[in-house]
């Protein structure tokens, strides 16, 4: 039994250590096809080689969230196997597109530690980097999780809370080399709305809904080699329910947001995010978006929108109660930067 | 909310207009593998590169119905989002094989319009063409749907009902360039039955059955980027049931028909089709076929069979009641041309 | 109806005959991605092209069990469509890795026949060989099944029971050409345990569990073109339950065994196996392993472990009752050779 991985406990993390995560993964058209089967994903750039070439890329890149899930999944056995909660994301940047045939691996640096006052758990902050076979960084983001202590007598580490930006500065966004939206085909992409058509404060109800099935969220979560047993084993929780991987909700909401944001073609920044409430099979997920900001970029024809994407089981545009807490129907509150033709 | 696609209503269509449908799609071995996982598809030509080469093709083509679903799925946001019913198909022809790496897009021409006498809806006839990255047509077919009016006061258009052939003439069938069945390996294909072994009027019970799951039909329908919410959102219909995409039934029945028609290797024509009754998760689909016609072709060793493929929840060979209406267990009545070694 | 395949009955087999199984199959990154979605498979060698190259292979091979299921699935219409029970496996050897783009086919030689004393069924022994497009053998194994007689009056054949080895001798194991574990990266692979760290008699509880869904086992079983209707048709068995393909349990248990056996990188031998009890949707599968043997190999840095892999719905390390029969919770008892870095 000593040979299985019990996961790390709070006292096992050291500030500054770098953890190389296991199981590199080569992605292909198989992962792309499955992504399209699991989510109603229709952004043309991640669907058509021809469309991507017309936008200056060599072939169609993998959906940005395939990159996110693949990089994230590798961190689970080292970071969140004993996590009580996934508390937040910050400073996420997509640094290079991932193409079929690329091989991804991940590493995380521990950048913050804070034991909780109850002495039973603590918060671990990591900066995770995904790299391809050329050692090029494709994604980095900060995540913090609450992790149980394995030995309650282990001494508390010095408290270090990293300073994290509330939002990734538009100047720090990295655009794919060669990206050019001057010849962007709005008819093929599915909607006529340009960067200039969106205004800060505007809210969009994405209208469509998807009812979630056990088989689907498990297929998705395994695809990213995410091993947290709470997603797979109906006997694990006392209530007999399998908790759905938060990333499944992110991808579902992002795909649903096509209807109204078809031209928000690529995700380049992840400013923050909260899994507001747990999601279970049988829930019907809908999504709405609020435009939080706009920025120009140096790439021809390319603007950036800062978007709040909310996944909900309830009515659109409802988020928090008078107590400042998320309403029970809200599943996800995600703040990201996307590229849009001007 | 103005940014989301409400779909077109009957009064939004103009005779002769050509609608370019959104979201081109590059297909790969991923779509093929998923097709084999979703359906018991075993036709050797669409399964093995070696087998396809022995039949004169460069590599194994995608199953013809992958082409159909991909082309069809793109039309949904423009044609059938507000459809009350999918009424029929005609004059369908597969014009060129689709191979892994090809990129498909669709366009539809409005070829007929007829407002219903109740003034609340009308019938729209479109001829849809699927094209690959070389602008080569890979599929065309006529479909007609009943679409709601959005504005009941909109004036009725002049009635135009296109003249449609009852059956695609064998002379108009297009065979893949180079196709040659003279070296066809019947043992590898799975059955010894040749074109000459089938007689007009013959009926075949395909014996096997598949019980349908929610997760499966949603995976399939999303894979084709078909966005009609009635397939995905359990809260959409008053009865809380998700209606299964008719194309899922077509593919299931076609795959089941392997048992008895293993050598009906390629679909080249779609003469007509009716989704006789709705299908829901939990239904067990079986299939039977009636041979409707036979034709020779100009390709070496290749004959054509005209086949009626019926999907049913009930007993084989039952189709319509004394009133001429489909019996309640019948799900699909499809009339197509397939290529068979002579 | 004469055109459908009724399957062979016991009296249809002749000692020494070789049956070429139908429907060759080209595999790609699509099958690999689906395998990762269906099972929590994480062995680095079958996940990353880079990792595989560092171990001396040209690219990442398909998971060995993809090869097994693909070869096995083709035999079903000829061998086990009328099988009452799948009785055992022996003398299984993986003879060459399968890579994306390879095309597989199968053939089986009847090597034994024994009619049961009740006269209603008999045992058929076959040696099945899977071959790739270069006619190279990739897998061979012996399987024996109990098959019903179709005609109870058919005479019993002479009884021939093949002599089968209890275990594949380590000297007979075939290692992939070029395989070299001297530069094996244990951190990327996920665990530090080497061949020398495992001792005969050691038992490992793999800890994790997966609850099985109907949609998932059907996707898997169809992916291998396995057509036995008992897996798909809920109306087939009197109890309305679909029996899960035994190979689904094998793959699930093998993938779960990563946790503790992450470096058991490749399966090269299959000594024996029993599907101890039927598995149904809703069951939660867990796995444990006992180390049965160890052997050196001629490849640099490569050792072999003989492992008993048990899939169970119950507690680890429980196998048989006092009567020598498998306990009701035990689903699978598999005896195999895997390659491990020394």
Automatic annotation (TrEMBL), chains A, B, C:
InterPro entries according to UniProt: HotDog_dom_sf (IPR029069), MC_hydratase (IPR048274), MCH/BMMD (IPR052342), Thiol_ester_hydratase_Rv0216 (IPR016790)
Signal sequence region: none
UniProt GO MF annotations: lyase activity
Domain of life: Bacteria
Protein name: 2-methylfumaryl-CoA hydratase
């Amino acid at each position: 039994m000593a040979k299985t991985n019990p996961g790390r406990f709070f006292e096992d993390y050291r500030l500054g250590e770098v953890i190389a995560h296991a199981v590199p993964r080569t992605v292909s058209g198989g992962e792309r096809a499955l992504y399209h089967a699991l989510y109603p994903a229709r952004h043309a750039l991640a669907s058509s080689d021809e469309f991507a070439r017309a936008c200056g890329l060599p072939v169609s890149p993998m959906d940005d969230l395939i990159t996110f899930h693949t990089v994230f999944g590798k961190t689970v056995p080292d970071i969140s196997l004993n996590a009580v909660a996934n508390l937040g994301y910050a400073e996420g940047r997509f640094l290079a597109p991932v193409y079929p045939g690329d091989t991804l691996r991940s590493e995380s640096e521990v950048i913050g530690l804070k034991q909780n006052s109850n002495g039973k758990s603590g918060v671990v902050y990591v900066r995770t980097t995904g790299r391809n076979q050329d050692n090029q960084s494709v994604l980095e983001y900060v995540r913090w999780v609450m992790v149980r202590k394995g030995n309650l007598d282990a001494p508390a580490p010095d408290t270090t809370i990293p300073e994290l930006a509330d939002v990734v500065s538009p100047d720090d966004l990295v655009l794919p080399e060669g990206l050019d939206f001057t010849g962007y085909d709005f008819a093929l992409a599915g909607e006529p709305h340009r960067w200039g058509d969106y205004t800060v404060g505007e809210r969009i109800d994405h209208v469509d809904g998807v009812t979630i099935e056990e088989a689907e969220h498990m297929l998705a979560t395994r695809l990213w080699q995410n091993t947290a047993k709470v997603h797979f084993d109906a006997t694990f929780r006392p209530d007999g329910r399998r908790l759905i991987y938060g990333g499944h909700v992110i991808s579902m909401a992002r795909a649903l947001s096509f209807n109204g944001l078809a031209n928000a073609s690529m995700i380049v920044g992840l400013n923050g995010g909260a899994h507001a409430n747990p999601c279970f099979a049988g829930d019907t997920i809908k999504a709405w978006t609020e435009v939080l900001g706009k920025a120009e970029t140096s790439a021809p024809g390319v603007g950036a929108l800062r978007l709040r994407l909310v996944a909900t089981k309830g009515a659109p545009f409802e988020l928090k109660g008078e107590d400042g807490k998320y309403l029970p129907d809200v599943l996800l509150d995600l703040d990201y930067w996307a590229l849009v033709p001007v």
